[in-house]
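Q: For a teaching handout, I want to show students what a protein-ligand complex looks like in token form. Below are the inputs, and the small molecule is iron/sulfur cluster. Please produce the holo structure.
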Amino acid sequence: MRVSFPNFSNIHVVIKAVARKLGVSEGELVVPPPTTQKTLDLGVKYSPVEACLPFKLTLGNLIEACEMGADTLIQARGTGICRLGYYAKVQEQILSDLGYNARFLTYDVSRNKLVGMFSLMRNLKGANWFRDIPALHFGMSKLFSLDRIDKAVRHTRAVEGERGVANQIYKEAIASIDGAENGREVKRLTRKYVGRLNSVARDPRARPVRIGVTGEIYVVLEPFANMDLEMEMGKLGVQVERTLSLSRWVKYSLFLNPLGIDEWKDVRKAAMPYLKRDVGGDGWESVGEKVFHSREYDGLVHVAPFTCMPEIVAENIMPSTKEDLPVLSLVFDEQMGKQGMITRLEAFVDLLKFRRRSREKHENFSGC
Ligand code: SF4
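A: Here is the structure, written as tokens, with iron/sulfur cluster included.
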């Protein structure tokens, strides 16, 4: 058996950690190469033209993994009202048409998530609770660590005196966490890198604007899919805020949702005057995020893959909410050019700075 999976943010670090503790040998795990233009070209070439970007990119990852000899592929599936439910079946068929007879191990992201996680592990190496629980725990510790560091990076980029320092530290952090052998080491490295990021020399003139990023989870979290959106925002002096993260998803979906705790309760409640039901994917939450954070953020960037129905619904509702928070909608597909995205971001950030200056002037004037 040679098992592989599609790339998604830093998930490779977590899967490697769990696999190592399960006893999956290096030869049995095929880590797909980083997502590149080649991955996208492969995905676009073999996908139905109307498929959403996450489908195309993950198909490209799986083809590259099969080219490296993978014969067992892990893929997500769901029972929600969007296309995710079809991903694994359609991709399996496409790969078979291409001559790769890979076995798919699917993970249902809609229900029985903890049970599903253990059954995935059982499919890989047979059941053994004494091995599986610590393996999962170790993987989770790396995931939480990376998200903590990621948050610190998003804040440091906005104020660093020398551009690129935070990114360099982040790169080192990912490699170090990837190599960590046990939970204690992961904790130590987390403290070390968060500390380093917090002590990066600041630009004394920096006055970052706070912008939230929301939308479809894959495009929000996968830097290749969103063309390094957060990094580009950091270069413009933006402090990026984001509710979505893989560690939050895991914490709630695996452990707290089964206890009746809903992480999106307040956000969905905020969306209620404008959208009263789930529209699939993350569409409901996107509307709620605009309303919920309208007093907290200076602006919101809403990202969506082209043809993503849930986010099209959200995008069309956002302009009509009474909460006054400027929103920049960015739609990603294989035709999108990075320079176009940067130009729109620059204009958006200028607008927000202008709004802030006007507000401050008005406040000073009223205070006289
Ligand atoms: S949420 Fe949108 S992009 Fe994601 S699978 Fe569903 S339709 Fe595709």
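A: Two things your students might notice: The longest strand covers residues 209-215. Residues 52, 54, 82-84, 216, 218, 280-281, 305, 308-310 surround iron/sulfur cluster (CB under 6 Å).
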